[in-house]
């Protein structure tokens, strides 16, 4: 799946829509040669103006609705993300106001066309058309704040990371500088895709890799799973929730060399927090930078994990040491899921 907001158009604001609609109506009226007596001509010309203004306005607004996915139609991951990036309620309200404007303008169009058709006075006919213009303009101005809001939301949402929701997803966690991006690069052949999020200055790294003929995905979210929960704000908590919807497996990285700048005691503490938060997930714990870490520190971390009944794997991501073994472990855990996907794909193809 691609970013569901990718196709969201630039949204014209009230003044721009009004200008465009009125200009089109004048153009249509000047190119049109009405027939009949003076009353009939006035009726035809003004009806054309009213219909054109209504059509152009409603088309502009409908385009926004058509190309913007409704909140409730999105998978949970994107719903959480939406709420993290923009206010889901405001977003929903803005779309609803556009819907309201379309319906109201359509209703007014019918009423004014009818009034114009019944009027016998060219002056009154022109006045009715002006009145209709005024009402359309005021409806658009009423929803202008919402249009502005959607435009801002669009700028944020169209840059959402392209994360494939159908792929089994591995979430990488651990303190900054322990080697998360290095490991992601080693696990995935692809150049990690980086998209910026407001909750992290660095963006999110996504890489995919293929084993046999099935793909899976590795995500590293700097700023999210690398600090104690007490330091996280609401937005970050929500983003973690989004990760929970998506992830299938957590790879937790320790850096027993402490070159990352965090003593192993801090790392153990953070591990406990993440382990609790993702308690229902399978975990693979790796000890990175074993090429430079002291055996003493490595042992300390291993013993800490063993006390909790957790096995760990020694690696040195930069040198590629232990990566194959790690991949096998990943496959072992994810394989049942991959097979299920393969079965469902086979089924669809066979049908
Ligand atoms: N000696 C050694 N250095 C490593 C190893 N893995 C990563 N590094 C180094 O550790 C530093 C941090 O690695 P990153 O992969 O950027 O760490 P990160 O966890 O992604 O960092 P943030 O994105 O800042 O959270 C870099 O200078 C790497 O070159 C390793 O196995 N051995």
Bound molecules: guanosine-5'-triphosphate
- The overall average pLDDT, rounded, is 86
Instruction: Let me know the number of strands.
Output: 7
| Rough outline | elongated
Count of structural domains: 2
Instruction: Supply the number of helical segments.
Output: 11
Give the CA-CA distance, first to last residue. Answer: 22 Å
CATH superfamily of the largest domain: P-loop containing nucleotide triphosphate hydrolases
Task: Record the strand order, biggest sheet.
Answer: 2-3-4-1-5-6-7
Task: Return the CATH class of the largest domain.
Answer: Alpha Beta
CATH architecture of the largest domain: 3-Layer(aba) Sandwich
Q: List low-pLDDT spans.
A: none
Walkthrough of the structure:
This protein has a 7-stranded mixed sheet with strand order 2-3-4-1-5-6-7, sandwiched between helices. Helix content is 57%, strand content 13%. α1 (14-30) packs antiparallel against α5, α2 runs parallel beside α5 (122-142) and α4 crosses α6. The radius of gyration is 29 Å and the shape is elongated. The longest helix is centred in the N-terminal third of the chain and has 31 residues, at 88-118. It is of the alpha/beta class. The mean pLDDT is 86. The chain folds into 2 domains: 14-157, Up-down Bundle (Four Helix Bundle (Hemerythrin (Met), subunit A)), CATH 1.20.120; 169-350, Rossmann fold. It contains 11 helices and 7 strands. The structure holds guanosine-5'-triphosphate. Guanosine-5'-triphosphate (GTP) binds at residues 176-182, 222, 226, 288-289, 291-292, 316-318. This is Putative GTPase, containing NOG1 domain.
């Amino acid at each position: 799946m691609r970013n569901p907001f990718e196709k969201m158009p630039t949204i014209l604001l009230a003044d721009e829509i009004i200008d465009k609609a009125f200009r089109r109506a004048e153009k249509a009226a000047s190119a049109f040669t009405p027939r009949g007596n003076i009353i009939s001509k006035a009726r035809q010309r003004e009806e054309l103006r009213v219909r054109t203004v209504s059509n152009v306005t409603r088309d502009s607004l409908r385009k926004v609705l058509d190309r913007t996915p409704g909140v409730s139609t999105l998978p949970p991951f994107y719903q959480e993300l939406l709420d993290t990036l923009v206010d889901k309620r405001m977003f929903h309200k803005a779309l609803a106001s556009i819907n309201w404007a379309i319906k109201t303008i359509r209703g007014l169009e019918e009423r004014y066309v009818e009034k114009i058709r019944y009027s016998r006075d060219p002056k009154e006919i022109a006045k009715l058309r002006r009145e209709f213009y005024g009402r359309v303009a005021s409806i658009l101005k009423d929803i202008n704040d919402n249009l502005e809001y959607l435009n801002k939301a669009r700028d944020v949402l169209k840059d959402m990371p392209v994360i494939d929701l159908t792929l089994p997803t591995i979430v990488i966690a651990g303190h900054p500088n322990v080697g998360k991006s290095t490991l992601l690069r080693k696990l995935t052949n692809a150049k990690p895709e980086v998209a910026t999020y407001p909750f992290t200055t660095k963006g999110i790294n996504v890489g995919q890799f293929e084993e046999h003929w099935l793909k899976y995905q590795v995500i590293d979210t700097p700023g999210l799973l690398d600090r104690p929960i007490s330091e996280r704000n609401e937005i970050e908590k929500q983003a973690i929730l989004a990760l929970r919807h998506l992830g299938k497996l957590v790879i937790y990285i320790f850096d027993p060399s402490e070159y990352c700048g965090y003593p192993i005691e801090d790392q153990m503490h953070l591990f406990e927090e993440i382990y609790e938060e993702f308690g229902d997930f399978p975990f693979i714990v790796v000890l990175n930078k074993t090429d430079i870490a002291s055996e003493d520190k490595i042992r300390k971390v291993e013993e800490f994990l063993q006390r909790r009944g957790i096995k760990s794997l020694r690696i040195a991501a930069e040198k590629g040491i232990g990566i194959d073994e790690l991949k096998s472990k990943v496959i072992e855990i994810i394989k049942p899921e991959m097979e299920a996907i393969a079965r469902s794909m086979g089924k669809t193809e066979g049908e």
